[in-house]
Amino acid sequence: MTEITNTDYLHNSRPFIVRAIGQTDDGRRVEGLGASYLTRGRATDKAIADAERNAEEFDVGFQILNVDHRKTAIALKEDEFDIQKRRLAFPPYKVRISAYRGEKSVDASSSGWLRFSGTVASAVQNAQARLGTFD
Q: How far apart are CA 10 and CA 59, in angstroms?
């Protein structure tokens, strides 16, 4: 079971970009991202669903460090974030995370063409595979 503890509006105009932060029963921090051009509520629902899916699918805790959504680049640091506009959106979705299992941590990144949540999942999967090599 995952408890969503916080949602942050990373980009409060179109496209609306939301980060959901959750805590699992075993103490892992998980996050999810959602984006929508229509409403903030839709972006929030997508972010919460992504965080819950990431908690079920992966056995590592992680924190999102950077997000590139089309022409918007966002750098995240705990409760602060920096938004910049880019001219070229190629590929349109990029994510960089810091994942941990026990005392070990790794950074991983991923880029994608179709969905934001798939890009986050791919980065977490890469980090989980790299953390598995330490065992």
A: 26
Q: Is the peptide bond before 91 cis (omega within 30 degrees of 0)?
A: yes
Instruction: Identify which of 62, 51, 53, 133 has the alpha carbon closest to the alpha carbon of residue 100.
Output: 62
CB 69 within 8 A of CB 11: yes
According to the model, what pLDDT value does residue 134 have? 58
Residues contacting residue 11 through CB under 8 Å, at least 6 positions apart: 17, 69, 72, 74, 83
Ranges of H-type helices in the chain: 40-57, 116-132
pLDDT-based confidence at residue 133 (cuts at 50, 70, 90):
low
- Of the candidates 122, 130, 121, which has an alpha carbon nearest to the alpha carbon of residue 101? 130
